[in-house]
Write a sequence for this structure.
């Protein structure tokens, strides 16, 4: 598809997101409502308001990004706009109404939420991905259908258009919406995240829900001190004045580093998209990396080769992606046998302008939801689980350099050399005795092993990613035994046990699991926990080591013994249950529709700025059409001998601020729009031979 055809796929009288057809919105159906004071809402009760239906699930980092993108719109247009969160669960645990209620509280959602565990409303609106946004006008008609994140600017323009139109028609009703806030609850900790042990025997807890750090004494109840005001925000300074925004992870620096930096701890300040340095002696907080702007290159490079490896900026270099380490290779390439290549722009992603986020130094860098941090002695750097871009980054506290360690940025489960590997919302990190990394890769319900080569400090570092436990984006369960068949459910934390095995905070199974690499087997150490998000080994002065487990939904830390004989549990393996699309075998015409919002235009300065990457599970499902190429139209061929499977489709489009018919200014703000779809399909003779997806806008 050419850039012109991409623009014309969704035409509009307002040159924005509007659909030219008047499609009546479907009724809202589900199990119940939250944040309405017990009132059951329907479309009739919302008539006269502009409604944004936000199809989300609380495991999804992109969905959490959208919640934050919508907040300014909700504040600005509160008298005319109603957001309705339609919770459409991916994992089994997310269908638990108590877990959903906790998530609504945890993420401070200030709009009505429909609990839709059977995906009734999801199906009625043909949602195919998390997150999906559907805009309904005051008369009850659908006017836009959007996938992915990054749509706030376009939504603001659309809302202004709708306000003007419907005030003129007399169909807009101003006034308060149906949101009813719940009663506040006072707690010492509120949805805590990661924990580290201090030299004095106390524990420093990331008190995520209170936007602060809390030092607890060894009894796990007495508060020694608090770092942070407890008010969501962003402020550096003294302990009582500093502000965080849903921080998650924390790491302590070694003494030979901290005396040079002036700070002892590094905090992943997740929603602020920053790393913060904390001086433990005084509690002083400073920003050490991140400019606060979310890294908008949502899933890595804007161009991806057929092998799944990222390619670097086409206008500046044409070599394959390197692991993002600093420095230049002497001849432009190193470790060719590993598929790793570097040149002087090894930290620049394709299409990644300074406006989008350049990997460089300190506070000049854009980050995306850093979730956990750990000190790597082998690298002599802090490793960052960059959940928002599905990658691992590094931060050098002595030089302030930020670089990409592993991950193409594509979401999924793919092993291989660092630049080619796929992660899916990496959330927990730990380092083993050999200096290699273990990663809790939450959205694939996987445990990943990142092997760091002996020359890791050089510019030609060799990184390799392997999967110990896990199968794919939609595979989960509670099964012990052989690691190939074992299943986890959205793990968030990980640590290495004294015997070299790995303990996993198996969050949505409410358990701590154990992976033994010597026999490649999984067992269960503890059950009955409330969304455990972190696990730490504690060595008391007397007795055996214990596990300190952060029970996020119980708002507490719990000591758990490490049993000599672990449990063997088999509650089965599951897959995310979504309606399967019936498609005819043979030729399938795929169209992904995209329309840049008013005030933006497709960035054609380096060729076609749209792209499709397509694969399938099983691979045999696609006889033709797999791979990566420019354009948003493609003919696929489905194999009639394969009864069903999943189509994996990633669509991207790059647009920059600019007027129609004019050149894009040199320093225009640019935006990358992307969505990953995993579409379950069943092949049936006589079924549809066309598949239409909406990245932005609809016909």
């Amino acid at each position: 598809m050419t850039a012109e055809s991409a623009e014309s796929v969704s035409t509009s009288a307002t040159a924005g997101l509007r659909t030219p057809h008047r499609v009546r919105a479907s009724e809202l159906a589900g199990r119940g409502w939250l944040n309405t004071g017990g009132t059951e809402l329907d479309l009739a009760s919302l008539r006269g308001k502009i409604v944004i239906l936000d199809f989300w699930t609380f495991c999804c980092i992109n969905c959490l990004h959208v919640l934050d993108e919508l907040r300014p719109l909700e504040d600005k247009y509160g008298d005319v706009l109603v957001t309705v969160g339609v919770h459409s669960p991916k994992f089994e645990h997310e269908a638990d109404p108590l877990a959903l209620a906790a998530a609504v509280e945890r993420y401070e959602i200030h709009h009505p939420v429909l609990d839709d565990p059977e995906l009734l409303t999801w199906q009625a609106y043909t949602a195919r991905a998390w997150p999906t946004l559907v805009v309904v006008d005051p008369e009850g008609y659908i006017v836009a259908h959007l996938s992915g994140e990054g749509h706030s600017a376009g939504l603001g323009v659309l809302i202004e258009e709708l306000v003007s139109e419907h005030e003129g028609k007399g169909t807009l009703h101003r006034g308060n919406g149906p949101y009813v806030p719940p009663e506040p609850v006072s707690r010492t900790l509120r949805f805590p995240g990661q924990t580290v042990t201090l030299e004095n025997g106390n524990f420093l807890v990331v008190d995520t829900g209170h936007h602060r750090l809390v030092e607890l004494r060894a009894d796990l109840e007495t508060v020694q001190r608090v770092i942070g005001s407890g008010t969501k925000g962003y402020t550096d300074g003294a302990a009582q004045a500093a502000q965080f925004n849903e921080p998650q992870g924390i790491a302590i620096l070694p003494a030979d580093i901290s005396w040079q930096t002036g700070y002892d701890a590094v905090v992943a300040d997740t929603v602020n998209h920053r790393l913060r340095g904390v001086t433990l002696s005084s509690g002083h907080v400073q920003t050490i990396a991140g400019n606060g702007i979310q890294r908008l290159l949502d899933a890595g490079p804007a161009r991806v080769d057929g092998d799944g490896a990222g390619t670097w900026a086409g206008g500046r270099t044409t070599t394959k992606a390197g692991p993002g380490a600093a420095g230049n290779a002497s001849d432009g390439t190193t470790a060719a046998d590993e598929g790793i290549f570097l040149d002087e722009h090894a930290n620049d992603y394709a299409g990644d302008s300074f406006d989008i986020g350049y990997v460089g130094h300190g506070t000049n860098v854009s980050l995306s939801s850093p979730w956990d941090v750990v000190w790597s002695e082998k690298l002599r750097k802090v490793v960052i689980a960059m959940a928002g871009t599905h990658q691992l980054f590094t931060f050098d506290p002595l030089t302030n350099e930020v670089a990409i360690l592993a991950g193409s940025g594509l979401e999924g489960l793919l092993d291989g050399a660092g630049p080619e590997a796929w992660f899916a919302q990496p959330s927990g990190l730990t380092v083993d005795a050999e200096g290699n990394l273990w990663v809790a890769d939450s959205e694939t319900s996987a445990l990943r092993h990142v092997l760091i080569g002996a020359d890791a400090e050089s510019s030609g570092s060799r990184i390799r990613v392997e999967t110990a436990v896990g199968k794919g984006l939609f595979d989960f369960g509670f099964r012990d035994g052989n690691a190939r068949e074992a299943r986890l459910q959205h793990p968030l934390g990980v640590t290495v046990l004294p015997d070299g095995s790995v303990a996993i905070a198996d969050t949505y199974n409410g358990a701590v699991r154990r992976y033994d690499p010597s026999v490649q087997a999984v067992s269960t150490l503890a059950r009955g926990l409330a969304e455990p998000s972190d696990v730490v080994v504690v060595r008391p002065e007397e007795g055996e080591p214990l596990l300190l487990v952060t029970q996020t939904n119980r708002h507490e830390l719990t000591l758990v013994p490490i049993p000599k004989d672990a449990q063997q549990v088999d509650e089965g393996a599951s897959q995310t249950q979504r309606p399967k699309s019936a498609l005819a075998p043979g030729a399938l015409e795929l169209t992904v529709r995209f329309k840049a919002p008013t005030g933006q235009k497709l960035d054609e300065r380096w060729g076609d700025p749209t792209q499709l990457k397509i694969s399938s599970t099983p691979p045999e499902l696609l006889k033709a059409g797999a791979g990566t190429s420019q354009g948003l139209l493609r003919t696929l061929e489905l194999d009639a001998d394969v009864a069903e499977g999943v189509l994996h489709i990633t669509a991207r489009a790059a647009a920059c601020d600019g007027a129609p018919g004019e050149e894009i200014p040199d320093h225009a703000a640019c935006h990358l729009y992307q969505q990953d779809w995993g579409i379950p399909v069943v092949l049936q003779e006589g079924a549809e031979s066309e598949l239409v997806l909406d990245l932005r806008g609809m016909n």
Summary: The radius of gyration is 24 Å.
